[in-house]
């Protein structure tokens, strides 16, 4: 990632931080375990000006993305958060512990070149949002879904002017065109901001990890605290845990998703 004179280090780091198309956290972890991690080759991590943005320097050498672009972050808060990941590395550089770095690379190398397509992918979730599909029983699950998801729908009504139809079970229910369009407009507004690539990256990550663009937007607009949003995305799973107990492998996957979700939330918040 740095402009080190050692090409093998540069190439190793670029390969490590190429954004994964496969979002299964277990498969991603398995790939990382097979991949030898490069040794940490730097001592100092500094936030430095990069044109009208902020970048990182490792022992004075600028950090670049896998596509060899300058790592240019729109706010000093985000740059400091990314720098903290680099400072926190031990003897080896482990990208699994650097989700903000991965997302910053994704924003610059991927999302920035296809803003319209990414915005469209996020908005698609409005047609089958998690919070619109309710259980008919047992009563405890019905109550938990209502408590967690009704405020999200209230947010959509009040903030977006959008109302959504509910369905019982998994049978598809069509949503009003004007409501889906309202979500699309909200996402397009995010995309038109100067830091739109970073906003879309964070929103896509939160949407994909929760299965709900409405939860993601509620978090982004401050209508939900992080813990509330995360809990809302896991009402069904938490109910199953209460009934049947926790599964170690499922819990490990959830911990990875939680780490990435928190990073996406922090990225959006750091944009100001």
CATH architecture of the largest domain: Orthogonal Bundle
Beta-strand share of residues: 5-15%
Strand order of the largest sheet: 1-2-3
As for the number of domains, it is 2
Q: Which spans have pLDDT < 50 for at least 5 consecutive residues?
A: 1-13, 19-26
Write down the CATH topology of the largest domain: ATP12-like fold
Distance between the termini: 26 Å
Mean pLDDT: 90
Specify the number of helices.
12
Structural class: mainly alpha
- CATH class of the largest domain, anyone? Mainly Alpha
CATH superfamily assignment of the largest domain? ATP12 ATPase
What is the helix content? 55-70%
Tertiary shape? globular
Order of helical and strand elements = HHEEEHHHEHEHHHHHH
Rounded to an integer in angstroms, the radius of gyration calculated over CA atoms is 20 Å
Please give the largest β-sheet.
Answer: 3 strands, antiparallel
Tag the structure with descriptive keywords:
272 residues; mainly alpha; ATP12-like; ATP12-like fold; 2 domains; 3-stranded antiparallel β-sheet; two-stranded parallel ribbon; 56% helix; disordered N terminus
Q: Brief description of this entry?
A:
The protein has 272 residues and is mainly alpha-helical. Helices cover 56% and strands 7% of the residues. The strands form two sheets. It has a three-stranded antiparallel sheet with strand order 1-2-3. The protein has a two-stranded parallel sheet with strand order 4-5.
């Amino acid at each position: 990632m740095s402009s080190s004179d050692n090409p093998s280090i540069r190439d190793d780091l670029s390969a490590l931080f190429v954004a994964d198309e496969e979002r299964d956290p277990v498969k991603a972890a398995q790939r990382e375990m097979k991949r030898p991690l490069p040794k940490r080759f730097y001592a100092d991590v500094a936030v430095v000006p990069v044109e009208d943005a902020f970048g990182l320097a490792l022992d004075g050498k600028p950090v670049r993305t896998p596509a060899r672009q300058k790592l240019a972050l729109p706010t000093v808060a985000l740059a400091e958060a990314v720098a903290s990941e680099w400072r926190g590395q031990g003897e080896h550089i482990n990208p699994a512990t650097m989700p903000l770095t991965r997302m910053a690379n994704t924003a610059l190398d991927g999302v920035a070149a296809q803003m319209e397509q990414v915005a469209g992918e996020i908005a698609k979730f409005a047609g089958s949002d998690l919070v619109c599909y309710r259980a008919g029983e047992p009563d405890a699950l019905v109550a938990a879904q209502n408590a967690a998801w009704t405020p999200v729908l209230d947010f959509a009504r009040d903030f977006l002017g959008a109302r959504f139809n509910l369905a019982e079970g998994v049978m598809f229910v069509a949503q009003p065109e004007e409501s889906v369009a309202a979500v699309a407009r909200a996402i397009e507004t995010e995309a038109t901001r100067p830091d739109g690539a970073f906003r879309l990256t964070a929103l896509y990550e939160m949407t994909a990890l929760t299965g709900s663009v409405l939860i993601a937007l509620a978090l982004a607009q401050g209508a939900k605290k992080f813990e509330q949003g995360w809990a809302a995305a896991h009402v069904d799973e938490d109910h199953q845990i209460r009934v049947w107990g926790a599964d170690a492998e499922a819990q490990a996957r959830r911990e990875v998703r939680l780490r990435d979700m928190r990073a996406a939330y922090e990225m959006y918040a750091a944009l100001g």
